[in-house]
From TrEMBL:
Homotetramer. Forms an RuvA(8)-RuvB(12)-Holliday junction (HJ) complex. HJ DNA is sandwiched between 2 RuvA tetramers; dsDNA enters through RuvA and exits via RuvB. An RuvB hexamer assembles on each DNA strand where it exits the tetramer. Each RuvB hexamer is contacted by two RuvA subunits (via domain III) on 2 adjacent RuvB subunits; this complex drives branch migration. In the full resolvosome a probable DNA-RuvA(4)-RuvB(12)-RuvC(2) complex forms which resolves the HJ. It comes from the Bacteria. Pfam families: HHH_5, RuvA_C, RuvA_N. This is Holliday junction branch migration complex subunit RuvA. Residues 148-201 are annotated as: Domain III. Belongs to the RuvA family. Residues 72-91, 107-126 form the Helix-hairpin-helix DNA-binding motif class domain. It comes from Ornithinimicrobium faecis. Its main location: cytoplasm.
Length: 201
């Protein structure tokens, strides 16, 4: 298993980065927030997990081992694969996902594109006790508000939202609501979380 990669960033996409490791460019799937935090040309270290399928080998990368562990844990639930697990971490922080599961917060879980009410109930049923055993405090109502900042990066956020399954119009409306709420976040990851919260209202 490839547990981590470290090296210069050759390319940054919406939901992936290419990291050079020993002269080889490794295509690593990430959340939009993680990709946005990887400066092209700079060196990055990502915790990774390799998903092996009969027809493919796919590498997923995370800012730390906590997110990687949660990515692997949620896939123990029937019907949750790597793409849905990554979508959960795109919408919520690792703590946000764990708190939603521990508190049975179906509204927070169904904010993730691809998770309906039945899917959210199954995730809570199968993982709640395991999450509570880790000492996670239940929290109802989703993750904490994003940090406010200055000029938003609306175009990148729009692409990220569409990539997560929202329509272009829904993405535009969410971006406008974030802007209308006051000074918008300056970082893509913070702006994206704020827009996702608007979409979940």
């Amino acid at each position: 298993m490839i547990a981590s990669v470290r090296g210069p960033v050759l390319h940054v996409g919406l939901d992936h980065v290419v990291v050079e490791v020993g002269g080889v460019g490794m295509h690593v799937h990430t959340t939009p927030a993680t990709a946005a935090g990887c400066p092209r040309g700079g060196e990055v270290t990502l915790a990774t997990t390799l998903v092996v399928r009969e027809e493919s080998l796919t590498l997923y990368g995370f800012e730390g081992t906590e997110a990687r562990a949660l990515f692997e844990q949620v896939q123990t639930v029937s019907g949750v694969g790597p793409r849905l697990a990554l979508a959960m971490l795109s919408v919520h922080s690792p703590d946000g996902v764990r708190q939603a599961i521990a508190g049975g917060d179906l509204a927070a879980l169904t904010k993730v594109p691809g998770i309906g009410k039945k899917g959210a109930e199954r995730i809570v049923l199968e993982l709640k006790d395991k999450i509570l055993a880790m000492g996670v405090e239940p929290s109802i109502g989703g993750s904490a508000p994003a940090t406010a900042g200055g000029d938003p990066l609306g175009g990148q956020v729009h692409e990220a939202l569409v990539g997560l399954g929202w329509s272009g119009r829904q993405a535009d409306d969410a971006i406008e609501r974030v802007r209308a709420a006051g000074s918008a976040p300056t970082a893509v990851s913070e702006f994206l979380r704020a827009a996702l919260r608007e979409l979940g209202r």
